[in-house]
Design a protein that fits this description.
The complex is a heterodimer of chains A (178) and B (458). Chain A has 178 residues and is α+β, with helices and mostly antiparallel strands. Chain A has helices at residues 16-28, 43-48, 56-82, 99-121, 158-166; strands at 6-13, 34-37, 145-150, 172-177. Chain A is built from five helices and four strands. Chain A has a four-stranded antiparallel beta sheet, covered by helices on one side. Classes of the chains: A alpha+beta (178), B mainly alpha (458).
Chain lengths: 178, 458
């Protein structure tokens, strides 16, 4: 990654509609390395910044399958190989009795992969991030909406990008120090 | 998720949020309870009393560790007494929290957004109370880790054909899932508190807990997928947990336990008692913290309707149990019914019918469904009734089984009562602490319900 003095330019908006519209225009203007911040999830926003596939579902699917297999194989191995107990001549591999624990293990592994997979893909925990240097950004968790163009974007230019963001009529524009 | 018409009054249905709120007012109103509101005398007294009752629990547990389970009223034939009654009761209460947070999310019931946070907290504290009982009942509770499969020098493994082992997996998975689901839901609100907190220590603690959440669109996208999948996973899980708890009974051959209706009837009963607990918590909380704008009449009405519906399923379960006692032609099943109606515990059984079936029928009256005091009282009755139901299932079934020579009686001792009442204190003390340190209503989910949250097409 190219190191520059600024991390990016950040524009502040009043409401979700303006942010989505602005994000859409910025993406169409050719800026690809952009991000948007909002105090609550906005479905249209990820689409607007060109983010389509978040990968969480696949992680959860793999986690669930692993949980299912490991739960069942553990019981099979314990009941038939490691510690077989003969109960009135009943089969060691009594699979119907193993379904409940298999199910619970499936859920447990899928849940763990959903939570930790989501955090890992998001790169959290990350206590420091350059955007926190902008004092107004504290309102991103309250009632303000932000759009940022990263300085690593090939089209980024301190003056031209600021002029472009001005044309979107934001409340304020701030430079994010790196 | 946000639907404009959900948050405005129409056709006389009470709104989910009273009109006039904005992103800022919603945020300030809920976060100020944690950040700026001073500790009130009412909170101190309430927490103090609950804390003292928790100390009774500690004392009862300490004495149990010294003397063993002989201090309880359990004996042969009733070896399962209060410990299992309370375990089933508490875990059932937890189920409403998961139902509200997961199932109602999948069904797009946006009214859930203002009550899911504290309902999930209720789930976690109820599961914590529930989890204590089987462990205390073990006799040698310090060996509780033997319940889990781990490689050991004794070369022993748990017996996976036993429903009691299934229960270990179901309850521990449920506790883990509820905790993670709750925590994931809290992350964005913890970030809000981090950015609002004036106190440096509070800012640091909320900062660590929120893990640097900054509300990026990419993060929200993954977050929403993960949250939806968690709801999808928690839904079958919550149904399975009480099903597995009912297997503890239904797999056994004791008359009154060995029946196929147990799983659905246990799950319905769990949701029934859970919603009663939600109402018993929501009604005082909205009053004392002035949250009538967010926990509206609509929430009370809907909870009352869920209670009424699940209560009728429970009544159907009782009906089928009684019918099968007669129809099966099995003399032991027939005797069980006779024993419930005429045996030494018949007063408990009639109280159960009154609390769980007859009194809740008052909820058909619309006026009562909208009266906080009336709902509070009915919820108390339902919680009592559901506790009695578990008592009837555990104790009355066990005390007179197949052989007259093995009949006996069960009398709970003061230690049984101290442990049970102690967990009530522990539960309430945890709720008091939760109300002070975490946002009791999901702030970011409430924002999505506001009309201004809707993205207008360009």
């Amino acid at each position: 990654m190219r190191r520059t003095a600024t991390y990016g330019l950040m524009a502040e908006f009043d409401n979700p509609s303006d942010l989505v519209a602005a994000a859409h225009k910025t993406y169409q203007a050719g800026y690809k390395k952009i991000d948007a911040y909002s105090p609550f999830p906005i479905e249209e926003l990820a689409e607007a910044i060109g983010f389509h596939n978040n990968g969480v579902a696949l992680v959860v699917l793999v986690g669930g399958i692993l949980g299912c297999l490991s739960g069942y194989l553990m019981q099979w191995w314990i009941a038939t190989v490691s510690y077989p107990v003969n109960v009135g001549g009943r089969p060691y591999h009594s699979w119907p009795a193993f379904i409940v624990v298999t199910f619970e293990c499936t859920i447990l592994f899928a849940v763990l992969s959903a939570v930790f997979g989501m955090l890992a893909l998001n790169g959290l925990p990350m206590p420091y991030h350059p955007v926190f240097n902008v004092p107004r950004f504290a309102f991103a968790t309250k009632d303000r909406f932000f759009l940022i163009v990263f300085s690593t974007d090939p089209k980024y230019d301190g003056v031209a990008t600021r002029a472009f963001l001005e044309s979107l009529a934001p409340r304020t524009i701030s430079e994010v120090p790196s | 998720m946000a639907e404009l018409n959900e948050s405005t009054t129409r056709n006389g249905v009470a709104p989910v949020i009273e009109p006039g709120h904005t992103f800022a007012t919603v945020t300030d109103k809920i976060s100020s309870i944690v950040l700026t509101r001073p500790v009130s005398n009412g909170w101190l007294v309430g927490f103090g009393v609950a804390f003292l009752i928790t100390m009774i629990l500690m004392y009862a547990i300490g004495y149990l560790f010294v003397r063993g389970v002989g201090i309880w009223g359990i004996d042969i034939p009733v070896g399962w007494g209060f410990a299992i009654v309370n375990f089933v009761w508490w875990i059932g209460i937890g189920h409403a929290g998961t139902l509200i947070s997961a199932i109602l999310l999948l069904l797009r019931q946006s009214w859930r957004n203002s009550i899911n946070r504290f309902a999930e907290a209720m789930t976690i504290f109820a599961v914590a109370c529930a989890g204590m009982f089987p462990v205390l009942h073990l006799g040698r509770p310090w060996l509780a880790y033997w319940l889990f499969p781990y490689p050991n020098t004794m070369n022993y493994w748990p017996q996976f054909r036993s429903p009691l082992v299934w229960d270990v997996f179901a309850v521990s998975t449920y506790a883990t899932t509820s905790l993670l689901f709750w925590f994931v839901g809290l992350i964005p609100d913890l970030a809000t508190l981090r950015d609002r907190a004036e106190n440096p220590a509070a800012r640091m603690i909320y900062g660590i807990l929120s893990m640097g959440w900054r509300g990026s669109a990419r993060h929200w996208s993954r977050y929403e997928t993960a949250y939806l999948l968690l709801a999808g996973l928690a839904t079958p899980l919550v149904l399975s947990v009480h099903t597995v708890v009912s297997f503890d009974f239904a797999i056994g051959i004791v008359p009154g336990w060995h029946t196929t209706i147990f799983p659905p009837y246990f799950v319905a009963g769990a949701i029934y008692s859970g919603f009663a607990m939600v109402l018993m918590l929501a009604i005082p909380i909205r009053k004392f913290y002035g949250l009538e704008d967010f926990i509206t009449e609509r929430h009370l009405q809907n909870s009352a309707k869920v209670m009424l519906a699940t209560g009728l399923i429970v009544a159907y379960g009782y009906g089928i149990e009684a019918f099968m006692g007669w129809y099966s032609g099995n003399r032991y099943d027939a005797f069980l019914l006779w024993n419930r109606l005429h045996g030494p515990y018949h007063v408990w059984y009639f109280s159960l019918l009154a609390c769980n079936i007859f009194i809740p029928q008052l909820l058909w009256i619309r006026k009562l469904r909208t009266s906080p005091l009336g709902l509070f009282l009915i919820s108390f009755v339902v919680l009592t009734g559901m506790w009695l139901e578990r008592f009837i299932i555990v104790v009355v079934s066990l005390h007179r089984d197949f052989l007259n020579s093995s009949w006996g009686m069960y009398y709970p001792t003061r230690w049984d009562w101290a442990t049970f009442i102690g967990t009530l204190g522990f539960f309430v003390a945890c709720m008091f602490l939760f109300l002070r340190v975490l946002p009791m209503i999901s702030i970011f989910e409430l924002r999505t319900l506001l009309p201004e949250a809707e993205v207008k097409p360009e």
